[in-house]
Amino acid sequence: MLRYFVKRLVLLIPTLLGALFLTFSLIYLLPGDPASTMLGPRATPELIEALQVRLGLDKPVWVSFGKYAWGIITRGDFGESVWSYQPVSSLLLQALPYTIILAASSMIIAIIIGMVLGILASAHEGSVLDSIITGFSLIATSIPSFVAACFLLLFFAIFLKLFPVMGAGEKGNILSQLHHLILPSLSLAISWIGYIAYLLRSTMLEVFGSDYIVTAKSFGIPMRCIAYKYALKNAIKPVVALVGLGLGSLFGGAVFVEVIFNRPGLGKTIADAVFARNIPVVQGGILLASFLYVLSNLVADLSYAYFDPRIQYE
Q1: In the beta sheet, which residues pair with residue 5?
Q2: What pLDDT score was predicted for residue 313?
């Protein structure tokens, strides 16, 4: 297990280096001179030259990339914001906890509701309840997070006035923060509820046909006990992989949700930086999101060993 873990960490290095190179290349993909594009048409030649020096655009590309990569690897230095002169790392660290809380709460909601629906549907195969849950799952998987966010915002926040329209709540007030978190979390969770419910239903039905489940039924063990004690642990393995993938995808979906609800976070920070043409912040935000995506998939991969001890990592 330890050997496999070290091997996976080593394999992450080229992936992260590739992401680092792609994010660095963003500044050179801008049309025309990058400094002029960021500062706008009214910028003076002196300001343009000063920004080029700050961003290292006055040096060859390989020199600038080496300096950029070395600063990130050794010091966690993502550069400075073009406008506020604040370190990009501090801006991202201020926003990251909001996004982690949003993504984690969304996934927890999706896992709990999705697993309950999947188990109910598999335990009542062919019934009206099964048809309703399966239909809901298929519809939910096709709803993008920003569509769900707009609908929930209009209906529950504006029409019914049950939840706040925007923000993350008062600092230090847990109830206020939870109140502001419900709608954004549900917006991100809806599609993953459908994915988990449909996948778990399918895997549970496969497990129910296994010999050991048939034997357990023949001994008169209640179906509820069979489903939760025996079938679920084997059926949940594909869900673990989906959760790992989902955690990474939730960081991408958080961009739209945080913008719609005007909620601070990594996604909104990146979106605001795009509109402000603050490329260093965009670069740092995308690189951090890439790292979180890769890390979540690694954790999901390693968690297989817990649910199935027969798996041998080499």
Answers
A1: none
A2: 55
Would you state the pLDDT for residue 206? 84
Q: Which helix (H) or strand (E) holds 100?
A: helix 88-123
Closest CA to 171 of 163, 183, 180: 180
d(C-alpha 237, C-alpha 107), whole Å: 16
Q: How far apart are CA 192 and CA 113, in angstroms?
A: 10
> What domains does the chain contain, in order, with CATH numbers?
88-307 (1.10.3720.10)
Determine contact, residues 43/82, Cβ cutoff 8 Å.
no
In degrees and rounded to multiples of 5, residue 70 shows phi and psi of -65, -40
Number of neighbours of residue 162 by Cβ within 10 angstroms: 11
Question: Considering all CA atoms of the chain, what is the largest pairwise distance in Å, rounded to the nearest integer?
Answer: 85
Model confidence at 275: pLDDT above 60: yes
Structural contact between residues 169 and 180, judged by C-beta atoms closer than 8 angstroms:
yes
Mean pLDDT of the 153-179 span: 89
Inform me whether the pLDDT recorded for 14 exceeds 90: no
Exposed / middle / buried, residue 218 (Cβ in 10 Å: 0-12, 13-18, 19+): exposed
